[in-house]
Design goal:
Number of strands: 4
Number of helices: 4
Shape: elongated
Structural class: alpha+beta
Order of helices and strands: EEHHEEHH
Helix content: 40-55%
Strand order of the largest sheet: 1-2-4-3
Length: 113
């Protein structure tokens, strides 16, 4: 899986580009529908805390029309969205998280013994 690049954002610290995450998760939905369903309309995510809209730095759009909307997601938000995505890539995220949890539990057990 090609993971999106972690970027620095002025208010949210480390973030992931939502379009890159959408592509990496291989969602079958259009980006606009996906971001609304998974992030914007999700009652557990708050704008300016979990995500922000990112405006393009250039207003020159070679295809004409208005620029595409994009969003920067915090790492925690990106992880939660990935784990909720019902694709093979989303399942890989879950498996990775479970493996990390087992490793942590094993380390705790060893430190207790």
């Amino acid at each position: 899986m090609n993971y999106p690049t972690i970027q620095n954002h002025e208010t949210l610290k480390q973030t992931i580009n939502a379009r890159d995450l959408h592509e990496a998760l291989e969602s079958g939905q259009k980006f606009a529908d996906w971001i609304k369903a998974k992030v914007i309309n999700n009652p557990f995510f708050d704008e300016a805390i979990d995500y922000v809209e990112v405006f393009p730095t250039s207003t020159n759009n070679p295809q004409g029309g208005r620029p595409s909307r994009n969003y920067a997601l915090t790492l925690d938000t990106a992880k939660k969205v990935s784990m909720a995505e019902q694709t093979a890539r989303g399942n890989e995220t879950i498996e990775g998280e479970v493996a990390e949890l087992y490793a942590l539990l094993s380390a705790i057990e060893e430190s207790i013994e």
